């Protein structure tokens, strides 16, 4: 089974650009060559950009260090940035940014991070970005810009572009002419005087000495059918090869050195049942390249044809006498969604779509070893719920605030924009923290509510309805801006580390490996029915039973109503027995089974040969108990002390913890309900008889109940905001403010960390976890994304319920008294470890909050931990 991924979004990275004009908004990314090397200043470091109309926004980001001055927006007046009009390359001394608009080309020469490392600019977690001095550069410098010459007798401007730096240091811009053909504009090396040169590549310059291809007619001019739709460039053997995918469905390879077309291929030859397609002009065709030392140069071609699409992967093969051919590797049918972007690696095709409901869809597939042609799904983070469920015993204001300011839901900029609209732009929002923004939102909604009240007296229920009305109005406004910022623009995968990112209009979503047990629970129905084995079990019979059991869990999940899900959540919050809560949910399911779901579940259960073995496998995969304590005294090198230590990495890792906790809490809930249903069915579905029923009742149900409580706790603390920490009690690393600049509103600063788990990870947990990983892998110097981030997330998830006491000690040291009291309260009924230490911590919290009388009562009453 292939690795599965899910998305985690970093909200404070990108601000939405003004609305695009001529060309569609787009995005891309550049990964430093040494981003995967442990001891490099560019490890886990990359640049991503987005374009909209006349603007380009660039952000340099690192998962190891906080980069200062890492954001820049460039605006080209009276121009539009072309699709593919931004590219970034690095040289030994510089990072070179090439930008192409419909009227001009530009080159920005910035210092390479390895050349600007100065001790006075660097602390342990802070470093200057390469954009620090970008304001000193001029976009109109004649040595680094040029106006695109107009072609005689041709109207319009270029509509696509690809740019690159040659081995000689020249900046080349290949432009797709609106009348067909390619124009290449060249800027000389930055330290070489001279003028701009222009070369036109026309079909009349094609050479007829090619092997395996002879044009049926040599035409002097390009026809509109030869309009270039997508361009890509690769430097090989001291020459620049320009690949052009054209409107006539043909792929052409041009040599810039010889100004000749060396290869032409009809892409429809790789498309089955292409009858009638040839008469249609291609509009959405795309082209991507990938190079590796093992496979050489591969081309990924997407053909957009009516009712379907196809990815074709080809390999460029060189023969003698400067002759080239294409070797077909794979053809992959696309899904019905609208393609936004795709990227090609040395082994996989990653694609980004939007479906009919405007839902983002990301999938990938190995193009060499997937004979079934089945795409692997990525579990994209869903948008916030359209409606907020409010319990009859809950305050609407507190409920909405909890949803608005919990992780995984809204960006700060979406809330700020909604707040400005809600206030009708009457007040300017100052630089505020998350806590301050929360107060601003509360004040705005409550003020609006009070101003609408005309009656002097009304019932409590009437006031509650008013609260729901006004808070839902503000929430709807936030939803609109969040949806706009979530618009997918591009997809990037690092060839050095394998890190994949989904680039959206307002933020970046990182694609993290999905653990096998989570993948089973989240997978689509067709996957569960098509797979015959699973990586959580080696024995084929057990694998089959696990898949059958998960299918039953999916039926249980669908049958649990939102009301009963809320009741079970509330029961866990109030420290009631998970087993009793599961029985109540099951009673409700049995009483309201109008669709005969219980019968369907019973039929499936009868097909499971050894259900207890299957349950034990699933419980083992979700177990949070560790065999040994993580080493706390390990010394780490400076490179390890920085690894995954930036504000972005802290948010990323802890959001991943929240995602895992939410998924597994639901998994354990459904498993516990199913186990209770097993007890009701008894020998009717248990082939093993009474022995298995006894094991289920005495072992498996208590383990499921314990895990449900553990993941409920983990979910709670990963969503619970930390209190403002006094600056004299925290490490200097926590004093960094990450500033989010918005296009139409003031800056919003967020103090990191945001949640209780983030606080623990940043102050204590990260160094211990990284030390643990590298104490087991002393020789590892390459940062492979899937392996590293999975280990970090898995080890961090163990800490809240770990026998070690570092987590509550961290809360106490950072004055999180309210959060520590809640932590002790939630673990009290089920955790039998460190009871005395927990009581001591609770007493300290009471004293800190001025409740000393509660401590004195213990000497007489010895009350429970709530």
TrEMBL record:
Residues 539-760 form the NUP160 helical domain. One of its GO terms (molecular function) is structural constituent of nuclear pore. Pfam families: Beta-prop_Nup120_160 (PF11715), NUP160_helical (PF23345), TPR_NUP160_120_M (PF23354). Residues 799-859 form the NUP160 middle TPR domain. InterPro entries: Beta-prop_Nup120_160 (IPR059141), Nucleoporin_Nup160 (IPR021717), NUP160_helical (IPR056547), TPR_NUP160_M (IPR056535). It is found in: Nucleus. One of its GO terms (cellular component) is nuclear pore. The keyword Iron-sulfur does not apply. Keywords: Nucleus, Transport. Residues 45-517 form the Nucleoporin Nup120/160 beta-propeller domain. Its main location: nucleus. It comes from the Eukaryota. PANTHER family: NUCLEAR PORE COMPLEX PROTEIN NUP160. This is Nucleoporin Nup133/Nup155-like N-terminal domain-containing protein. The lineage of its organism: Eukaryota, Metazoa, Chordata, Craniata, Vertebrata.
